[in-house]
Amino acid sequence: MSENTQLNWKFHSPETQGFHVVVTPEMSDCRTTYGFRLNLEKGTEYQLYDEKLELNGAVISGQAPIFFEENEYLLSARDSFYLPAKHHVIIKAQSNLIMYFGGAPFESKGEFFIRKYDLSLPLGNIHQIHGKPPYSREVFMTIAQEDKGSRLICGITEGEPGQWTSWPPHQHSKDLEEIYCYFDIPKPKFALHLASRKAGEIEEVYQVSSGDFVIVPEGYHPTVGMPGVKSCYFWIMAAFTEKSRRYDLAINDPNFQV
Asked: How many whole angstroms separate alpha carbon 216 and alpha carbon 10?
C-alpha cells in the first residue's frame, strides 16, 4: 500500500434482516480477515455454514438457542461460539437478534465450543484487564490463543466512559490484522477510532457508532469514547501464519508512552 493512499478502512454493517458480508479480503485492504453481521427477527432462524472459513460469533443483542449436532445451547448478549469450517449450526432467534462474526481461513485446527460471557471469572486467559486508568479496559476472550483454532483470536473490549482503549497505540502489522466491530454506542453517541501506519502520527480519525466496522490491516489503532460513552467493540484478530496466532506480539508506539 502506498504511504499516500487514503485509508478507506471504515465499513458500516447493514441493519436489514439476514446474514451480511461486511468485510472480506476481496473488498478491503485485509489479507486474511473477514467480518460478518447477522440480523434475525424474533421467531426466525438461520443455518450458518462455511466451506473454507473458521467462524467466531458473538451475540450483540437478543437471545437465541443454537443447535450443533445433537445439542442445544442458549446464548444471550455477549455469549459466543466457535465454528470450524464444514460444520453448521442453526440459530433460532428467541428475540430480535444481532450477532457479529469474525472469519479466517480454516487449516484443520479447531473444535466447536461455546463461551458464556462471565466477568466473574478470575483474571487469566479468558477474562483480562488491560492498561490502567485513564486507559484501562476489560477484555473477554471469545476465542483465546489457548483455545483450539487455526488463525482467529477474538474478544470483546469495553473501555471506561470517555476514556481510551488500545492505549498506548500499538501495532502487530507483521503478524496479524484486525477488525474492530463497534456496538452499544447508539447514535448520536460516538467514539473515535484513530488509525496510522506511521509511529508518532495520526493519519485518519473515524467517528464510529454501533454497527461500524473498522479494519486494521496494519498500523496503530487506539480508540476513545466521547464523554460518558464507553468504547465497546468485538474485535477479530487473524494471524497470517499459525505460528503468529499469538496475543503477545504487539509493538507499542514509543512516541506515546505514558
From this structure: 10
Please give the CATH topology (third level) of the domain spanning 12-244: Jelly Rolls (2.60.120)
CB-CB neighbours of 62 under 10 Å: 19
Element (H, E) at 124: none
C-alpha cell at 109: 485446527
pLDDT tens digits, one per residue of 66-104: 999 999 999 999 999 999 999 999 999 999 999 999 999
Question: Could you give phi then psi for residue 172, rounded to 5 degrees?
Answer: -140, 40
Q: How far apart are CA 81 and CA 114, in angstroms?
A: 4
Q: Which comes out higher in pLDDT, residue 150 or 256? A: 150
Query: Measured between alpha carbons, how far is 224 from 166 in angstroms, rounded to an integer?
Result: 9
What is the residue extent of each domain of the chain? Answer: 12-244
C-alpha closest to that of 74 among 60, 86, 62: 62
Does pTM surpass 0.90? yes
